[in-house]
């Protein structure tokens, strides 16, 4: 039997700093009950296979993460005694918080809970009335060539050099498992834009935490649009950031009301994703205000230590998952800060930029209440290309809800190439690769990540300190009908390339526009290259004041 460990005591003190009355609600007739310990649990740390999947155990072992008391399930005897007190419905269970969420109108049963010796307390809130309308602020929606492969979605991916992970690194999420916690995945089981995902059985599990036993495909559209940014494919129009990853789809958000119970739902969903071995956890949800205003978070609460959802996001990260959370869409409102759980430690909170790499007005700002950089990074969240609200069309969708999954999908692809590294290592490389890593701010955080640069960094090649314009290399050698030029753009706006034969005569020359201040791998592909005679040539590349000359060979 497992005695309560220090980690459990610390968690209890962190979540609940003072004793409060036991009759309190997280939604109408809904209560969060935390237990004192796991003393009599039938589960042990020595046999984690009883409550963690082989994939989850392998993920921990690979990163050197020990099994600890947080992994132990809630004592089933405690749950049984709680339910036996009267007409009480069990909604969700959290092993990380050692708590359950219940629903009941049985006042006698609820009054008796305080006498149970293993009940620590229930969060103190006040009653509220369910609101039927959707909260508009929650989901703001204000080749082949690369263009032929990605269609309109190319810009949102190439802005972060994600296309290089796909096309050069060969990483499209193969073997990775991504958990998506959201409001529902309406018609994701039939829509053509997700047909490729379904055809390869890429959805390995669905779960409705809001309505246990419910059908996530019959619920709200938002999660399906989020999923399309990672897994969608419509030829010539849309390519997701992790098109070959597998997915777990979990509904934790009830769009018809807003209560703290939804944070509890999220905790349960995150624990589910952990237990089955998800590598990446994406959520495009965030919470600051509720239908019962006494439940509202203050800015001071966004310190990484207050919201249960935030604490759970931090635990998920410590359990070896990459947690990606949208920063929020409140940037133009009186409350312009991030929401919970974007304030969590060691996760990737993602803000939004437009196609020109400028912060959008709606993207929620940082920092966290304790002064940490938030958002962590930013990606394209204005007119992101995905499946629209109806689901049958590919089109622009807006919000940090969609910049987040761009980063989540590419994080899975990056980790796929470096499975010997920890989730912490990968997230650190993503931050370090970003466009303003040396000078972060509360608008973009560390900036727009460069996933190819992060890949090189994890492989031992650090380009983060290189800011002056310079050409770095030319590949492949030998070439057939294209050449890739590796460079740091710095302040340069163009790159000039000249090819000479071995007698010094210019065979062709071209000038290509560049996006300033980024690492780039620019592909030059044209008919002339394909028609060149086999043999050796001299290639000169000019970027700013930097010039390199490389001998290249045209293949037979």
Structure description:
The protein has 556 residues and is α/β, with parallel strands linked by helices. It has a seven-stranded parallel sheet, with helices on both faces. A four-stranded antiparallel sheet has the order 2-3-1-4, with helices on both faces. It starts with 5 loop residues before the first helix and ends with a strand. The protein has 15 helices and 22 strands. It folds into three domains: 117 residues, no CATH class; 313 residues, 3-Layer(aba) Sandwich (Rossmann fold), CATH 3.40.50.200; 85 residues, Immunoglobulin-like (Sandwich). The protein is elongated and about 95 Å long. Helix content is 24%, strand content 22%. 50% of the residues are buried.
Radius of gyration: 25 Å
Strand order of the largest sheet: 6-9-5-10-11-12-13
Number of strands: 22
Total discrete domains: 3
Outline: elongated
Notable traits:
single chain, 556 residues, alpha/beta, Rossmann fold, Immunoglobulin-like, seven-stranded parallel beta sheet, four-stranded antiparallel beta sheet, elongated, disordered N terminus
């Amino acid at each position: 039997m497992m005695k309560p460990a220090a980690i459990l005591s610390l968690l209890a003190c962190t979540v609940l700093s003072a004793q409060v009355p036991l009759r309190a609600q997280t939604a109408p007739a809904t209560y969060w009950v935390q237990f004192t310990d796991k003393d009599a649990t039938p589960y042990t740390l020595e046999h984690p296979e009883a409550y963690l999947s082989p994939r989850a155990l392998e993920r921990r072992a690979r990163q050197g993460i020990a099994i600890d008391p947080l992994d132990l399930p809630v004592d089933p005897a405690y749950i049984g005694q709680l339910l036996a007190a009267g007409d009480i419905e069990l909604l969700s269970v959290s092993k990380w918080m050692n708590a359950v969420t219940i629903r009941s109108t049985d006042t006698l049963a609820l009054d008796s809970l305080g006498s149970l010796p293993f009940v620590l307390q229930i969060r103190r809130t006040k009653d509220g009335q369910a609101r039927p309308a959707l909260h508009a602020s929650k989901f703001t929606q204000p080749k082949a060539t690369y263009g032929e492969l990605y269609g309109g979605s190319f810009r949102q991916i190439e802005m972060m050099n994600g296309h290089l992970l796909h096309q050069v690194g060969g990483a499209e999420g193969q073997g990775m498992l991504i958990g998506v916690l959201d409001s529902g995945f309406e018609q994701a089981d039939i829509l053509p834009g997700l047909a490729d995902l379904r055809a390869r059985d890429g959805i390995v599990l669905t779960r409705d935490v809001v309505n246990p036993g419910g059908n996530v495909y019959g619920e709200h559209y938002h999660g399906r649009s989020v999923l399309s940014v990672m897994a969608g494919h419509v030829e010539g129009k849309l390519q997701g950031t992790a098109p070959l990853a597998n997915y777990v789809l979990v509904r934790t958000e009830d769009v018809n009301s807003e209560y703290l119970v939804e944070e509890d739902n999220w905790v349960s969903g995150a624990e589910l994703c952990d237990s089955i071995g998800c590598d990446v956890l994406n959520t495009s949800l965030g919470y600051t205000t509720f239908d019962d205003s006494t439940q509202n978070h203050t800015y001071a609460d966004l310190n990484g230590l207050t919201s249960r959802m935030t604490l759970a996001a931090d635990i998920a990260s410590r359990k070896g998952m990459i947690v990606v959370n949208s920063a929020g869409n409140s940037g133009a409102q009186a409350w312009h800060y991030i929401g919970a759980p974007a304030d969590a430690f060691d996760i990737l909170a993602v803000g939004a930029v437009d196609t020109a790499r400028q912060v959008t007005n709606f993207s929620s700002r940082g920092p966290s209440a304790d002064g940490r950089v938030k958002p962590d990074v930013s990606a394209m969240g204005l007119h992101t290309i995905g499946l629209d609200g109806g689901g049958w069309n590919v089109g622009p969708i807006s919000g940090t809800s969609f910049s987040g999954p761009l980063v989540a999908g590419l994080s899975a692809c990056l980790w796929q190439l470096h499975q010997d590294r920890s989730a912490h290592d990968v997230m650190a490389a993503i931050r370090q690769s970003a466009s303003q890593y040396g000078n972060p701010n509360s608008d973009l955080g560390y900036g727009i990540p460069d996933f190819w640069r992060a890949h090189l960094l994890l492989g031992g090649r650090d380009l983060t300190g290189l800011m002056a314009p310079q050409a770095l290399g030319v590949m492949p050698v030998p070439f057939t009908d294209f050449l890739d030029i590796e460079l740091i753009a710095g302040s340069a706006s163009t790159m000039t390339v000249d090819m000479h034969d071995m007698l010094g005569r210019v065979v062709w020359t071209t000038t290509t526009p560049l996006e300033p201040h980024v690492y780039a791998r620019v592909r030059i592909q044209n008919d002339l290259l394909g028609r060149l005679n086999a043999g050796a040539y001299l290639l000169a590349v000019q970027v700013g004041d930097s010039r390199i000359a490389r001998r290249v060979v045209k293949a037979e």
